[in-house]
Amino acid sequence: MTVIESTAQLQLAAPQPREAPWGLYVHIPFCRRVCPYCDFNVYARQEPLIPRYLAAVRRELALLADRWGRGPVRTIYLGGGTPSLLTPHQVAELLDAIAAIFVLVDQPEVTLEANPETVDTEKLAGYRAAGVNRLSLGVQTLVPQGLKVLGRAHRPETPVAAYRAARATGFRNVNLDLIYGWPGQTRDQWEQDLATVLSWQPEHLSLYALTIEPGTPYERAVRRGILRPLDDDVVAELAELAMEQLEKHGYLHYELSNWARAGCSRSIHNTIYWRNGFYLGVGAGAHGYLGGIRTVNERLPARYIARVEAGDLPIADMESIDPRTELVETMMLGLRLVADGISAAAVRARHGVELSEAYGPELDELVQYGLIEWDGERLRLSRRGILLANEVAVRFLEPRGTLK
């Protein structure tokens, strides 16, 4: 893997992007408060920067199009942070700028992440009118104890009101984010969370096990003995409970942490990531991957804005991804797709290698242990492998053979 030291090298170092549709991620790094478990690039009490920041984002979009071309863009994802701190007018201006700069294909999936305490019927109606057609609500839990442990400010009834407002304003593609495995959580509490949100019948659910990230207040609390994480075996039991309940209610478990209701769309944007596809990352701290080049933007909003206002792409780090690393990343990400798995034909076409050639002994051993399903053409995690996904993934770090 080669680190590119100057943005001037970007044009020469990058091969032409493939024709597959791109994703476009726009990072909104502002929050009213930062949750104690969060290690994302987010900042509290900097809302006055939002107008200037959005102007910089629109300018960065134009700079990226000049550098990389104008698409095709299949998905737009406004993530954060708390994108629902933006007004509907600000979202409309941003989406209009994207539509004017890039070639959009197939009625793009346009997702906006929302904190339930920051939205109401009027605001959600404005987002719909602006062009947002997929809403992702950060519910996390409906248990008062859990909300307190997770440092969430909203009450259990707040997500209920937000979800009803989303339906009332015409959203027909709604994702709910939930967190399980928080300190003190019981099986009954998790079962009740699942039963409640399943009764709402959202199109999509994302369920994440709480992880203690280095440098967060949670990590410091664990180190000092103030906070005691749940035992790994208990967390695994909660994960199995979720798989059982969602399957029973007709949800397809298509990715390690994601389920789509029968007949409803998966997250098209995130699937681009999991298939190791191409995407532009816009905004402070955003990551992009296009034409064999991975980029990471300046993290601090003020520094990001200054770079863009000076007419420069705000890239802090770049890497050229060599063929071997690209294959490893295809495997690491593709293993997450528990429904579709990894296609040997797709690997052959993209990387010029047979899965059985690159990973023969590993495949045989993992089949023997019952951790994967492998028929010579498609590789998937088994039910047991889903619970040990990290242990399976590390077996694919050293491919054999010659790659194109």
Automatic annotation (TrEMBL):
Signal peptide: none annotated. CDD domains: Radical_SAM. It is found in: Cytoplasm. GO terms for molecular function: 4 iron, 4 sulfur cluster binding; coproporphyrinogen oxidase activity; metal ion binding. InterPro entries: Aldolase_TIM (IPR013785), Coproporphyrinogen-III_oxidase (IPR034505), Elp3/MiaA/NifB-like_rSAM (IPR006638), HemN_C (IPR010723), HemW-like (IPR004559), rSAM (IPR007197), rSAM_sf (IPR058240). One of its GO terms (biological process) is porphyrin-containing compound biosynthetic process. The keyword Iron applies. Residues 16-252 form the Radical SAM core domain. It comes from the Bacteria. One of its GO terms (cellular component) is cytoplasm. Keywords: 4Fe-4S, Chaperone, Cytoplasm, Heme, Iron, Iron-sulfur, Metal-binding, Oxidoreductase, S-adenosyl-L-methionine. Its main location: cytoplasm. Its cofactor is [4Fe-4S] cluster. It holds the Pfam family Radical_SAM. Belongs to the anaerobic coproporphyrinogen-III oxidase family. HemW subfamily. Probably acts as a heme chaperone, transferring heme to an unknown acceptor. Binds one molecule of heme per monomer, possibly covalently. Binds 1 [4Fe-4S] cluster. The cluster is coordinated with 3 cysteines and an exchangeable S-adenosyl-L-methionine. NCBIfam families: hemN_rel. This is Heme chaperone HemW.
